[in-house]
Amino acid sequence: EYMGMVELSLLIGGFGYPYGIHSNNNSDAAKRGGIGMSSWQLCSNVNIWKVESATNISQIIKNWNIYTHNWLYFVCYQRLSSYKVVATFVLSGLWHGFFPGVHITMINMILMTVAQSSFRKRIQIESNSILLNI
Predict the structure, then answer these.
(1) Is 96 a catalytic residue?
(2) Where in 31-124 does DSSP place strands (E)?
(3) Which are the contacts of 34, defined by CB distance < 8 A and separation ≥ 6?
(4) CA distance 55 to 112
(5) Angle at the Cα of 2 (from 111 to 21), degrees rounded to 5?
(6) Model pLDDT for residues 67-77, shown as the tens digit of each residue
(7) Percent helix, strand, coil in the chain (nearest 5)?
């Protein structure tokens, strides 16, 4: 309930504005139609459009809590060689607090992510074998 207030206070304070990145024609503002257009992208923690139009669980996770996802990815996921998904969701559950609903959600997310990954690998193997037989 306080996340909106925190993001709003950061925006009002100007902490979300990326000063100095709109100085050349290769910037995002120039691609959108002109130099000097406002961009408050540094304070955005959720990409609503990508969450609502996601086609898999991974896209939802990557675009929901962006900075926490990036932190978990660099601190936990990249450093492990096995059980990366499980360890990352366990750390995320500890990060979010000791509430039963959080841990039930994390367990469900582990199961859905692993199932989605194995399903996608199976589909890729099947589609490759079909293409080789043509």
Answers:
(1) yes
(2) none
(3) none
(4) 13
(5) 85
(6) 889 999 999 99
(7) 70, 0, 30
CA distance 102 to 93: 6
Structure tokens at 91: 């750390």
Contact 15, 43 (CB under 8 A): yes
Given pLDDT bands bounded at 50, 70 and 90, which one contains residue 42? low
38 CB-near residues (< 8 Å, 6+ apart): 17
User: What is the distance between the alpha carbons of residues 89 and 73, in angstroms, rounded to a whole number?
Assistant: 10
User: Which of the residues 45, 56, 96, 103 is marked catalytic?
Assistant: 96
CB-count exposure of residue 88 (10 Å: 0-12, 13-18, 19+): buried
Residue 66 corresponds to which amino acid?
I
Place of tokens 């199976």: 122
pTM for this prediction: 0.65
Buried-state track 56-66, b at ≥16 Cβ within 10 A, e below 16: ebeebbbbbbe
DSSP class of residue 2 equals -
pLDDT-based confidence at residue 45 (cuts at 50, 70, 90): confident
From the list 47, 65, 69, 103, the catalytic residue is 65
